[in-house]
Write a structure and sequence with these properties.
Helix content: 25-40%
Largest sheet: 7 strands, mixed
Strand order of the largest sheet: 5-4-23-22-21-8-9
Shape: globular
Strand content: 15-25%
Number of strands: 42
Bound molecules: iron/sulfur cluster
Length: about 1000
């Protein structure tokens, strides 16, 4: 018997008991399906986006509450949005458990304080919280802000209070936070990006011009070959990974290279094991193999890369060191890592590739050492597995074959993180896979809006839109800043898009300071803080360790579980005078002072830090946009009010700012100008709306903008939202908080809320949401066509030259009317217009990637150059160096990772996920387990030089012993996710184990390769 929803509802409303319904024979199949309809009959449907990983799956949320004044809306059901072009109704175990996140018993409801030395939280009013925090901040700022440096340069830098910003908050929260922090002079600031994908930005921007995932989730299905290396998307990005499976169904091959046989490997065609921390050997070996076997997309390489560019004669590489190394400083002088230039300042080239110092020949010589035998010896990967990857990649050098790479933190979290990614970026250039549908370098971002918060410059030395925060030495004046950050084209006729830097920067200053920014005061340049060194999280923790930081504001971040060497982090927090934590849920950071026995063995009474815990809304309780990994800005809507007295981050930040400004207005203080001159034009200054902020992100005209081609016409009238960044001006007549977001909220309205999922070709959905830049979905797409403007592969036509303009399924990433004959090249953000096999002067540790051992090497040597074992450009503080272990005491390689069922340290507060994965464990290979007498279910102690964790052992075939340089190497898999603020079993902080040392370029910590010991705990 089949009943329609209407019939079923009528029947149940008519008093038929459930048992009677079952007795009628139409339960369970049909009627069970109808339960959903019944449950949602009076519910309101609201669109939202999953707040966990950056696949950005669409959600339908259902709330009950009839909208009457006293009826509070409550979310009662969440499911996947079937219209969403990426997720198409799917949710992974994390997304499926979101209802339990919203209603978690660990949600914070009221402002609280933990007084100095106390062992309890005390509820306080918002008024008291804001007043006390503002007083702490002002006192610290007045006592410690550096207004001028020794050279008399105005720097307005406040280092003694630092701020960490969220990874899942909206762009609107992010940009308000940027305004708040910089007006105060805060430079010690970082977002989760520092801990995750910092090296991605560094590597991809230095190669292609932009530091973001090049293609889209759906586009992965256009690939012929997918390499999964440095990531595990089947578990960390499950819904996005379905597009890899789609590609497989269409005939693509998938190969996984990873220290563990993980769930991505389980569905791959091939799995190749590798020693954690040896990826550059493997990938350098691929480069060598491609060259030796002539698997190069030659037309692409000659036209669209810098293979033919001649390098400065001072450049060299010998015995593990590039030219320019200063051993005293532990740094390179990078001047010789550049091209040779002619009299007109154009880079010299040799299109024949014969010149001994052209990039091609230098690269060929550099990687000639990485033979298949060396690869097998240093990585532990079987030679035939390595050669299989080479062959599959090599096949994609054909014009009609394309391969892609999916990676994440398995590459970034190393001292050579940026260079791991660079090596793959070079491979993709050699194969002609950049700009191609089905190609690219797909950096899979981990947190729902960490792409957006990177875009908004919430990092120590950044400003929105990947502009640089001024440096006190390089940019003492605005003229210096613009001269040094505005590159000149290095080849005739190149677009060199960063030549527009003055327009972006002045428009940003107008957003910061409004009418107070004038040409006469250099648009308020001196009110922005200037940095002297990068205050990344490792730097800030070292300063804290040395007693030089008094305050820490933590917004939507859990650094105690996220920063390396957790014991040291807890000791650092104990030296703070005050800490402010803004979060929807309880975090270990906020309760670092609470003793949990071995798990957190602190002396509560001796810790005098005042800790304020402020409850904020979660995704379901606010409007705003977040940016997925593929750069899509997706708008979401509020479905219910938050619990208790929780407020939006915007309201909290605004209340703090207004309280501080009032204090400066009333009492005066040091360097008040940036605070008093800050533009704060919001209708309710205590609660700026997401719409107001989103419009500022886009930007508007402050005066009529005339058409330069016809001055009788106006391109935008005063007060109008701008259609895109092309209209930004350097004369102060436009405002934009983030130039790359210009186009997201135009005169036509909120482009981020668009929901047209029509396929314009090859899975592109340009009418869904809005992507930066300029709604382009696949960046560098001009390179999908040959130099004459014809697609390399007619079956993969994304755009093409029509004879008059570039057009097609995607927005061309190129000057729309620049004919192929113009000589303009596809990498428009690079001043030379081509992709870089040799990364001139952008990276601190070399223009070509080179293998260096992890700081804690299981070999204790580097067989490629024994005198230079680890990266010479590593920055490590003395206190952290003293906490490094050696392989004789800690003989095994530890590597951390994420599980499908959990997201970082949030879902341990979520019932469904806690049920799915309730208890901490580590994975140990069978050989090591046999040696140690460990069986599955035993409790083991995993220790490093920095501390230990205890967890259940899972003895598995998934982690095999490898032979490396004649030595047996065991690897231990250590999942993240546990702590004491949990609805599951309490667990140890896995980040107790890794060392506090980071990627040379970005200081992203080395979580993926460090040394541990393993012991069985008898009687546990
Ligand atoms: S965690 Fe990622 S894959 Fe899972 S539902 Fe959320 S966005 Fe989708």
């Amino acid at each position: 018997m089949q009943l329609s929803r209407r019939q079923f509802m009528k029947g149940t409303a008519g008093g038929i008991a459930a048992s009677s319904v079952a007795a009628l024979g139409f339960l369970p199949s049909t009627a069970l399906a109808e339960v959903r309809q019944f449950k949602l009959a009076r519910a309101k449907e609201i669109r939202n986006t999953c707040p966990y990983c950056s696949v950005g799956c669409g959600l339908l949320m259902y709330s009950l509450g009839d909208g009457a004044k006293n009826a509070k809306a409550e979310i009662v059901h969440i499911e996947g949005d079937p219209d969403h072009p990426v997720s198409r109704g799917s949710l992974c175990p994390k997304g499926a458990g979101l209802l339990d996140f919203i209603h978690s018993p660990n949600r914070l409801k009221y402002p609280e304080v933990r007084e100095a030395g106390s062992s309890e939280w005390k509820r306080i009013s918002w008024h008291e919280a804001v007043e006390r925090i503002a007083r702490h901040m002002k006192d610290d700022r007045d006592a410690n802000i550096v207004v001028r440096n020794d050279q008399g340069v105005t720097v307005n830098r406040w280092v003694s209070t630092a701020m960490l910003t969220a990874s899942a908050s909206s762009n609107e929260t992010g940009i308000l936070t940027q305004k708040f922090m910089r007006s105060l002079g805060i430079v010690g600031t970082d977002a989760q990006a520092r801990v995750c994908h910092g090296p991605t930005v560094s590597a991809l921007a230095s190669t292609f011009g932009r530091g973001a995932m090049t293609n889209t989730w759906v586009d992965i299905s256009n690939a012929d070959f997918i390499l999964v290396m440095g990531g595990n998307p089947a578990e960390a990005h499950p819904v996005g990974f379905k597009w890899a499976i789609e590609a497989k169904k269409r005939g693509a091959r998938i190969v996984v290279v990873d220290p563990r046989f993980n769930r991505s490997a389980a569905v791959a065609d091939e799995y190749v094991p590798i020693r954690a921390g040896s990826d550059i050997v493997f990938l350098g070996g691929v480069i060598n193999w491609l060259i030796a076997n002539d698997k190069i997309q030659w037309e692409y390489v000659k036209a669209f890369t810098n293979a033919s560019y001649i390098v400065d004669e001072g450049f060299g590489f010998e015995d593990g060191l590039f030219s320019g190394f200063d051993p005293a400083k532990g740094q390179y002088d990078r001047r010789s890592w550049n091209y040779e230039f002619d009299e007109a300042s154009n880079a010299r080239t040799d299109p024949t590739l014969q010149h001994p110092r052209c990039v091609w020949n230098l690269m060929k010589a550099h990687y000639a050492r990485y033979t298949p035998e060396v690869v097998a010896d240093l990585t532990g990967s079987p030679k035939d597995g390595f050669l299989t990857v080479c062959r599959y990649l090599g096949e994609t050098s054909a014009r009609n074959k394309v391969g892609t790479i999916l990676y994440a933190l398995g590459w970034t979290q190393h001292t050579v993180g940026a260079q791991n990614i660079r090596t793959m970026a070079m491979i993709q250039l050699l194969l002609g896979n950049i700009g191609m549908p089905g190609g690219g370098v797909n950096a899979l971002r981990g947190h729902s809006n960490i792409q957006g918060l990177s875009d908004l410059g919430l990092l120590s030395t950044s400003l929105p839109g990947y502009l640089t925060l001024p440096n006190e030495k390089a940019h003492p004046t605005l003229a210096d800043y613009l001269a040094r950050t505005t590159p000149k084209a290095q080849q005739p006729g190149q677009l060199n898009f960063w030549s527009n830097t003055p327009k972006f920067f002045v428009s940003l200053m107008k957003w910061f300071w409004g009418d107070n920014a004038t040409r006469d005061n250099d648009w308020g340049y001196d009110w922005i803080p200037k940095w002297d060194k990068m205050y990344d999280v490792l730097q800030v923790m070292d300063l804290m360790h040395n007693g030089k930081v008094n305050g820490l504001i933590v917004q939507g971040f859990n650094p105690l579980t996220s920063f390396p060497d957790a014991r040291k982090t807890a000791a650092c927090f104990s030296k703070l005078k005050y800490m402010v934590v803004i979060d929807p849920i309880a975090t270990e950071t906020a309760s670092f002072w609470r003793n949990h026995g071995e798990i957190n063995d602190v002396d509560t009474a001796a810790i005098n830090t005042e800790v304020f815990r402020l409850p904020s809304t979660c995704f379901a309780e606010e409007d705003g946009a977040i940016v997925n990994s593929a750069r899509w800005l997706q708008w979401h809507y509020k479905g219910a009010n938050p619990p208790g007295e929780a407020k939006t981050d915007q309201e909290i930040i605004a209340e703090l700012f207004v309280a501080l400004r009032d204090l400066y207005r009333r009492d005066g203080g040091k360097a008040p100008e940036p605070i008093l001159n800050l533009s704060w034009p919001y209708r309710n200054p205590l609660d700026p709306t997401p719409e107001e902020l989103a419009k500022e992100l886009n930007g508007r005209a402050l005066a009529d903008i005339p058409d330069p081609k016809d001055p009788t016409k106006v391109l935008a009238r005063k007060g109008e939202q701008l259609p895109g960044f092309a209209l930004l001006q350097e004369d102060g007549s436009t405002l934009s908080a983030c130039w790359i977001f210009a186009g997201c909220w135009t005169q036509a309205g909120n482009q981020m809320a668009r929901r047209d999922n029509s396929d314009s070709g090859l899975g592109n959905t340009p009418g869904w949401a809005w992507a930066w830049p300029a709604n382009r979905r696949i960046i560098y797409n001009r390179a999908s066509c040959d130099p004459s403007g014809k697609p390399w592969d007619p079956k993969r036509t994304l755009i093409a030259w029509t004879g008059e303009r570039w057009a097609g399924a995607d927005v061309p990433d190129f000057k729309i009317d620049a004919a192929p004959s113009s000589g303009m090249n596809p990498f428009i953000m690079n001043p030379e217009g081509v992709g870089r096999l040799f990364a001139t002067d952008k990276l601190v540790d070399g223009p070509f990637p080179e293998h260096y051992e992890p700081m804690e090497s299981p070999l204790g040597t580097n067989p490629l150059h024994p005198k230079v074992v680890t990266s010479p450009a590593v920055r490590i503080f003395p206190a952290d160096k003293a906490r490094l272990g050696t392989h004789d005491q800690f003989p095994y390689v530890g590597t951390t990772y994420r599980l499908t069922e959990h997201f970082q340290f949030w879902t341990k507060s979520v019932a469904l996920n806690a049920i799915a994965q309730p208890e901490q464990f580590v994975e140990i290979g069978e050989t090591l387990a046999a040696e140690k007498g460990i069986r599955t279910g035993d409790t083991v102690k995993v220790s490093s030089r920095r501390g230990f964790i205890k967890a259940k052992a899972v003895v598995t075939k998934r982690v095999k012993a490898l032979t490396v340089s004649g030595k047996t190497i065991h690897q231990v898999g250590i999942p993240l996710h546990w702590g004491w603020e949990t609805v599951a079993h309490k667990g140890y902080l896995s980040n107790t184990l890794p060392p506090a040392v980071g990627d040379c370029n970005t200081q992203t910590p080395e979580y993926k390769a460090f040394l541990v010991n393993v012991e069985k705990i008898v009687g546990a």
